[in-house]
Amino acid sequence: MAVAEYYAAPGLLQYRGRAGLAVRQYFHGTSVPNYVAFGALAVIFFIAVFARQIAPYDPLVPAGEAMAAPNAANLLGTDTVGRDVLSRVLVGMQATWFGALAVVAIGALVGGLVGLIAGAVGGWFDTVLMRITDAFLALPGPILALAVVAALGRSYTNTLIGVAIVWWPLYTRIVRSEVRKLRSSPHMEAARVGGVSWWRLMYRHLLPGAVPVTVVAASLDIAALVLMLSSLSFLGLGAPQPAPELGSMSAQGLSYVFSAWWIPVMPAIGVALIAIVANFAGDAIRDRIRDR
Amino acid sequence: MLAVLPRRLLGAIPVIFALVLAVFTLQKVAPVDPVAALVGAKAPPDVYEAARVELGLDQSLPLQFWHYLTRAATGDLGQSSVSRTPVATDIATFLPVTLELLFVSLVFAAAVGCLLGLATAQGWRGSGVLRVVMVSGASVPVFLTCLLGMLVFYRFLNILPITGQTAYVDAPTGPTHSLLIDSLLAGRPEVFVDNLYHLVLPAFCLALIPAAAIGRVLRSSLEANLRADHTRTARSVGLGEKAILVRHTLRNSLGPVLALVGLQLAVMVGNCILVELIFARPGIGFYIARAIDKADFNAIAGVTLVVGVLYVVTNIFVDIAQSVADPRVAL
Questions:
Q1: Mapping DSSP to helix (H, G, I), strand (E, B) and coil, where does residue B86 land?
Q2: 3-state helix, strand and coil shares in percent for chain B, rounded to the nearest 5
C-alpha cells in the first residue's frame, strides 16, 4: 500500500474513504453554475418533501385577517378567507413537483418500454407503433391533454394520467432510435454470437445504452411539465377546491390582482421558481451525461 | 415547393383520422351522460330513451364512430349543452379572435426571438444577461407574465388596456368575427388601431416563452454556422462580419428555428387559453374554459378537433417554409 500511496496523484490522497473519492469523481468537471443548479435542485427537493413541516400554518385553515398584505406573521400575506399564502404555496409546490416527477416517471417507463420493444423487435410491429407515436407527436399536446383530463373528470390523479397519456410517445421515439443504433453495434453482435438469450440481450445489452438519453430528456422535460400541470390547474382541471394547488390558487385570486396582488402572484412565482430550477438542473444533468 | 403540398396533405389524413378516433374515444369514456346533458337529469324514461335513439347511442360503437366521423367531416360537431347552439357556429364566432392573438403574438415572438438570438450569438454587450433571461423566460408560467404585465402596464404605468378587444361599443361584429379584418371592411380604421392597442399586452405575454425558445435555438444554430468552414472561407477573403452574418449564416440557421416554431405553436395554443381568460378576450380559449367549467364535452371535443386539424395543416406549411429557407432539408 505504501508504494501505491507514494505513486498516487497528490489530489487523490486527501480523500481517505471510498465514498469521498466517489463523490469527488462524480462531480469532477462540473462547472460552478452547475453546482449552483444542483444545490437549488436539492433545496426544491427539500421543500417538496418537508412542505407540510416547513409551512408555518395549516394550508386549509384561516391563520389571520383576510387579505392581509405580506407581514411578519404571514410572510406572503393571507388570501380571501385568511389562509396563509406561504403555507399554501409551499404545499402547492409539493403537489406540483411530485406530480411532474410522477408524469415523467410514468412517461419514461411506459414510453421507454414501448420504444425498447419496438426497436428490438422491428418489422411491422415497429412500424405500427411508430405510426401511432407519430400521430401523437403531430397533434398539439396541451390541447389533447386538456381534452383527456376534461373527459376523465376533475381530480389530481386524472390530471396526471391525462398528461402522461400525451407525454409517453416522446420517450418511445428517443429510446427506439437509441436501440436501433445499438442493435448493429459490435457488442450486440458479440453477445448474439455468445448465445445470449433474447431477454437478456434486451435488458442487459440494449436497455442500459438507452438510459442516459432518456434521463437527459426526462430531466429537461420536468420544467415543461410543471408549467403544463399548473396551467391545467389554472383552468380548474386539477385537484378540486380547497386543495392548495398553485395554478388554481392563482386563478382564484385573479380578480384580486389590483386589490391584493400577492394572492394571485405568489403562487405563480412558486411555479416559476420550480420551473427555473428544473430547467437549469436539467441543463446541468445534460452537461454531465454528455461529458462522460 | 408547393408541389409537395397535395402529398403532404394526403399524408396528414391518417393523423387527422387518429385525432377523430381519440376524441371519439374520450367522449365514450367520459363519465358525463350526453343524453342526460340534453334532456336533463330528471327526464321521464320514455323521453330519455327517445333522446338516446335520436343521438344514435343505441347503435353499435363502430357505427357510432362512422356517424361521428362523417358528421365531423361535414362540419357538424354536435350541439353545445351550454349555449344550445351548434359547436361549429360557436367556433366560427370565437376562433377568429384567437387567430388574431396568435398571429400578432407570433410576429412579436419572431422579432424578439431573432433579436435575442442575434445579440447573444454575436456577443453584444450585456448578452450574458440575455442568455440567463432566455433560459428563465422559458420557465415562467404564462399567467405570471400576464399578472405582472397587468400590474406594471395597467396599474402603475397605465399605458395599456387589459380587458376585451376594443373600447368602442359600436365596433362591427361581422362578417369574419376577426375585429382586425371587420373594422377595415367596415371602414373604421380607428377601431382597427384600438384593437391592435388592446392586443399589445396579451400578445406580448403570450410571445415571451416562444421568443425565449427561438432566441436559444437561433443562437446555437448561428454559432454552429459561424464556426463552419464556408464562414471561415468568407472571412479569409475579407468579408465583413455583417455581410457574413446576413449573406452566409442567417438563412441556413433558420431551419431549426422554423422547426421549433412548429412545435412552439402547440404550447402557444395551450397558453392562449389562459391569456384569453385573464385578459377577457372572447376567443376560443374563453369558450373552452367555459366549456370545462360547465362540463360541456361536445364543445371541448369540437375545439380539440378544429385546433388539432389547424395545427397539423400549419405544421405542413412550416415544413415547407423550412425547406425554402434551407433547401438541404428534404420534404
A1: strand
A2: 75, 0, 25
Q: C-alpha angle B140/B141/B147, rounded to 5°? A: 100
| Inter-CA distances, A99 with A40, A58, A244, A286, Å | 19, 21, 13, 22
Predicted structure pTM score: 0.85
**Side chain identity at residue A93, one-letter code:** M
* ipTM exceeding the 0.90 mark: no
A8, pLDDT greater than 50:
no
Residue B173 has pLDDT above 80, yes or no: no
Nearest CA in chain B to A256: B147
Model confidence at A14: pLDDT above 70: no
Return the amino acid letter for B119.
Answer: A
- Cβ atoms of residues B291 and B299 within 8 Å: yes
How far does Cα B108 stand from its chain's mean position?
14
- DSSP classification of residue A69: P
> What residue has cell string 479569409?
B236
Establish if A225 touches chain B: CB-CB under 8 angstroms.
Answer: no
B147–chain A Cβ distance below 8 A for any pair: yes
CA–chain centroid gap for B302, Å, is 16
Determine the pLDDT at residue B107: 92
Do A140 and B303 make contact, defined as CB atoms within 8 angstroms? no
pLDDT in tens, B133-167: 887 888 899 999 999 998 888 888 877 877 777 77
Residue B47 grid cell: 323521453
Nearest to B297 among A150, A231, A236 (CB): A150
Contacts of B135 in chain A (CB under 8 A): 276, 279-280, 283
